[in-house]
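lol so apparently i was supposed to do this last week
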Amino acid sequence: MPSPTALNPRLIRRARADQIATLFTQWGRTTSSMALGGLILCAVMWNVAPHDELALWLAAILINQGWRYELARRYRAAAPGLTERESWGRAWAIGSTIAGALWGAAGVLWFAHGDIGHQALLIVCLFGVVMGGINLTSVYKPTLYGFVLPTLAPLIVRVALDGDQLHAFIATVLLVVLAFILRFGHNLNNLMTQSLAIRYENIDLIGELQAQTAAADRARGMAEAANRGKTQFLAAASHDLRQPLHAMGLFAAALSARVHDAGVRNLVNSINVSVEALERLFSALMDVSKLDAGAVAPKRTAFPLTPLFERVENEFGPLAAAKNLRLAFVPTRTWIDSDPVLFERILANFVSNAVRYTASGGVVVGARRRGRSAVIEVWDSGVGIPAAEREHIFEEFYQVDNSLSHTSKGMGLGLAIVRRLAMLLDHPVRIDTQPGRGSRFSIEVPRVAATVPQVAAPAEPSRRGTTLAGARIAVIDDEAIVVEGMRALFAAWESAVVGASSGEAMLTALGESGQYPDLVIADYRLADDELGTDVVVRLRHELGWAVPALLISGDSSTPTLDVLRASGLEFLLKPVLPEELRAVASRLVAAGRDDGVARQHRQALAAARI
Ligand code: ADP
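anyway here it is w/ adenosine-5'-diphosphate bound
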């Protein structure tokens, strides 16, 4: 049997102390077995031993149990700690030794009185009382030895002293049995100590595990709270900062359309440029923060590169042409597996930089197959990047000092966003560059087989134009400053604005003006939890006509974007660039006017209701 000392000594001490505690809970069992054993012994010896001796002996046994009862009571009252229990244990062992001595005395006193039959009964009684209580006395070694040895040793000596061979043989057998009993009790004690210590070790381990799980839970809770905090901050910042920027953009654009003095006009134009730069910087910062907060969930799908190449070419073609650069996209039939929107941002960033940092020559974009991947490369014949700068250009706001004029430089966030997007999508990025000769930015993506025949997307008809003259625009925004900004801007485009802060107020305002709007522009999140989408539905219902509508949202979170897309209504995100607003508004107004016949008809019907 493994020794209990192989376990942690602290646990062994704790187990032993608890074993002592169990001794004191066993008074009842010890007493009843003593009393029962005593009565049986008296009954067996009744005919051969003097009755007063028997009565005295039984009384002594019970008196011993009496003071042990008092000891147990005091123990319970004292409730001793682990270290103090040893002395209590020793006191209990004294009681066991006295009991053992009394039983031993019985064995010696009444042995000679009977015949061999009585002697045998006496031996059975004494060994019986020892064996019956062995699991109790073995709890603590001093009680084991203190009870067993005084009970049996005098009897064995007495048997041996009887002189004849039979008694000598019996004494030897009894000695062997005593040795077995002691060994059994000793091992039992070790086993109890060991199993208790193991149990405590397990309890400690479970406690530790629980503590660690609790700590991990706390850490996770804190991380989640921090993340929630960051996301909430982003949501708040995105709304609170977009709003003034949005209004500022509207005012600056309105101002530039009104001012005719060349000097002032230049001033207003530079305000416009600054506002636009601020809007772009703000959007880029929001993108970085959103990516860092893990608020961007990629939606991977298989898609062909060609339409994507076309969109990027349309976006940067004019810029390249203005710089006299050749911008070429090598035709490809490759399909890739990525998030189309996020991947397009990466490619657009590469192409934008390539055009920006190239003074002569051109930019070529192409896709190469490499095993199961496609490597999309953007080559330019630009300034290149010195070796020492290469590892820094992906850092936020890092810009290489390459003697480009301040205005032609970007914000130093483009590649910081690319790095985050590429990591999110798990697409490795590479740069090969030679200062003065050009650069190649490449990104590796999983290649997939084409799933449907490629059809060219129908070109979006360009309806840019000034069809806004004379239009009536209903603007619903709970921020008065935005309504005023819109009023000023649309006035510059020769349109009139009816403004209101809620759907209800707009219905009243339209009723008072007696005029129908050509276009409704509603902020998505209005005061009192009113939603722009609901306002549009209500206005359309009240007007009896599906008046063209445009929603403007300062909230670009995924759930809101999903709702906006699902509404089927046109929407723009704040801060809205005035030119973009003008293009969308004029297209919508024109579409509404095309529907004029139906409108007049419904207008007549609705007039009665307003
Ligand atoms: P920026 O908005 O300034 O272009 P980026 O993060 O996109 O910021 O790029 C960081 C820096 O890396 C740039 O300032 C530029 O110096 C350098 N860089 C990026 N692309 C190119 C390129 N195609 N050719 C030369 N330099 C580049």
